[in-house]
Amino acid sequence: MTYYTTRRRILGFASVVALTGSLLAGAHSQASTNLPPHSGGVLPQDRAAPSAGSHFWEALALEPKDAWSRLRANFQWQDQAHNERVQHWIAHYQANPQNIIEITERARPWLAWITEQVEQRGLPGEIALIPFVESSFDPRARSHRGAAGLWQFMPGTADALGLRRNGAYDGRLDVVTSTRAALDYIELQADQWYDGNIKLSLAAYNAGAGTVNRARNVSLSRGDAGDYWSLQLPHETMHYLPKLKAIAAIINAPDEYRVTLPEIDASPGFASIPLTQPLNLSEAARLTGVSPDTMADLNPGLIGGNAHPNHTRALLVPVGREQALLSRLENRQSSPSNTASEGSYVVQRGDSLSLIASRQGVSVEEIRRQNGLEGNLIQSGQVLDIPQRSLAFR
């Protein structure tokens, strides 16, 4: 599938044009703005092409045993000799094996799902390890520059990519939403500026396309290849791809580098359920039968612990627990009682926010803030979270 086919399927051609225009004025965490025109020159594609000689038996691949084997099966850059920059970071990571163990353990909830998303797009499997370099696989990571989340999006880039942010929700911290946006962004820049060259797109992801394009123009003017390895870039960007390739090399052959990786299942460890009514994460945890910390860790984009359909359309739960939560939410929604559960209220005909606030002993503004409401419009049957002053939500 070509890049444009993928993008038209995901966003539509008109949306791609609008997104490209927005990104011209803003970029990623360390990105510069004012992206110059494409400098020309065709570079090799980084995507793997299916072999024309493949036959039926070669297509019968065994199911991967774990997330690591699935990830390795999608690596595309492991057949290249490691240059000095990559060797430097391999030595660095080897000297700090505990750091690798901690970060890969932190990747446990997300690695299989991210690998699946990368695989579906035909991108190099190494892309799934970008959060290792960007955020040490911490969905709540924030940089002093203002970048946030697993993929470290700056506010301007997040806005251009449609990642919503408000006082109750930050799409940069939402792993599912931000991962899809990051992969869209990498593909978009690769096609827009670099004829599909993913390595140059990753450099632009870190430093901004303007910085990379200027360095590439200089490289081409000297008669160099104009690929990532021939560019003079900011220090951090010069080491961005070497770090990524180094950690991928270690994961590709952990025994060789004397590193023990945690066991992670090959299938995603979470399920997504549709969110049709406001729900406090503590209550969701109780209904699902998991700890509040587990529910919060799976839904880091929800600030303050309240899920609302106005902010996000899905809630993540541990795999295998989704049916229990769905059935209990259905029972709660069909209950004839005005009080759906402790701390929530079902709107009745004739209710207003001021009337509900008066009855519940809270202010209208508190109800608005708790439920992500911007005005006074409510509907019969709607479930509102009521702020509890005697027992604070955790």
UniProtKB/TrEMBL annotation:
GO CC entries: membrane
GO biological process: peptidoglycan metabolic process
The keyword rRNA-binding appears for this protein: no
Classification via CDD domains: LysM (cd00118), MltD-like (cd16894)
SUPFAM superfamilies: LysM domain (SSF54106), Lysozyme-like (SSF53955)
Annotated Pfam families: LysM, SLT
Signal peptide (UniProt feature, chain positions): 1-27
Gene Ontology molecular function: peptidoglycan lytic transglycosylase activity
Keyword Aminoacyl-tRNA synthetase belongs to the record: no
Keywords (A to Z) from UniProt: Signal
Residue intervals of the LysM domain: 343-386
PANTHER family: MEMBRANE-BOUND LYTIC MUREIN TRANSGLYCOSYLASE C (PTHR37423:SF2), SOLUBLE LYTIC MUREIN TRANSGLYCOSYLASE-RELATED (PTHR37423)
Similarity section: Belongs to the transglycosylase Slt family.
The protein, known as: Membrane-bound lytic murein transglycosylase D
